[in-house]
Amino acid sequence: MRATVFIVSLIALAACTEGGIGDFSSFGDNAATIADTSNVEYYPDDQLIVAAKVQFSAKNYGKASTLFKRAIDVAPNDPQALLGYAASSDMLRRFDQADMAYRKLQPIIGNRVEFHNNYGYSQLLRGNLQVARRHFLIAYEQDPSNAYAANNLELLRNSSNYQRRARGDLRGL
After folding, report:
1. Could you tell me where the DSSP H helices lie in the chain?
2. Whole-angstrom Cα distance, residue 156 to residue 17?
3. Where in the chain is the domain with CATH 1.25.40.10?
4. Continuous H helices in 75-128
5. What's the CA gap between 57 and 103, in Å, rounded?
6. Quick check: 77 and 108 in contact, CB under 8 A?
7. How many angstroms separate the CA atoms of 125 and 121, rounded?
8. Cα–Cα distance between 100 and 32 in angstroms, integer?
9. Is the pLDDT of residue 36 over 70?
């Protein structure tokens, strides 16, 4: 009789959980959450960077930022990951995160064209046109045949041609 009561109570207890009778764990979760992961392979950072570049090209800057951040977690001093994270943070207007990445990136790659182009573009997005011009000119002087440097200078010229208006000038419209 006691064995029958024990079996019935065990079945009733198993019915209260999401799994079956064999799905018990001593940690309170089901057994699937503590599965053996010893055969999981290392996740190479190149896959993350490739996926992040695809997202950045598709203008999915939030996803790109997340993937570049994961790539930084895998390889903290990877220049591509830092540069991509800074650029995607700029596009999201997260300049605090972009500045952190640029501060870490400059000692790694030095004063290369890529750094000055990206940092200048970051300053352009913030409205710091003089600082942006200084970095664009450094990039252009280092490599006059670089299309990005020439395009950034043209973009800066077009940005400075627009009139600046004081706050509230458009209230009457």
Report:
1. 2-15, 45-57, 61-74, 79-91, 95-109, 113-126, 129-142, 147-161
2. 63
3. 45-161
4. 79-91, 95-109, 113-126
5. 24
6. yes
7. 6
8. 39
9. no
The encoded tokens of residue 99 equal 């500045």
> Are the C-beta atoms of residues 69 and 57 closer than 8 Å to each other?
no
Q: What mean pLDDT do residues 103-121 have?
A: 93
Which CATH code of 1.10.10.10, 1.25.40.10, 1.10.1200.30, 1.10.10.60 fits the domain covering 45-161?
A: 1.25.40.10
Contact indicator for 78, 72 with CB cutoff of 8 Å: yes
CA triple 18-21-26, angle to 5 deg: 80
Q: Can you give the pLDDT at residue 33?
A: 52
Q: Tell me the C-alpha distance between 11 and 15, whole Å.
A: 6
Find how far residue 163's CA is from the centre of its chain: 34
Q: Which residue's structure tokens are 């090209």?
A: 57
pLDDT in tens, 57-86: 999 999 999 999 999 998 889 999 999 999
Residue 82's nearest CA partner among 59, 112, 126 is 112
Place of tokens 């000038």: 169
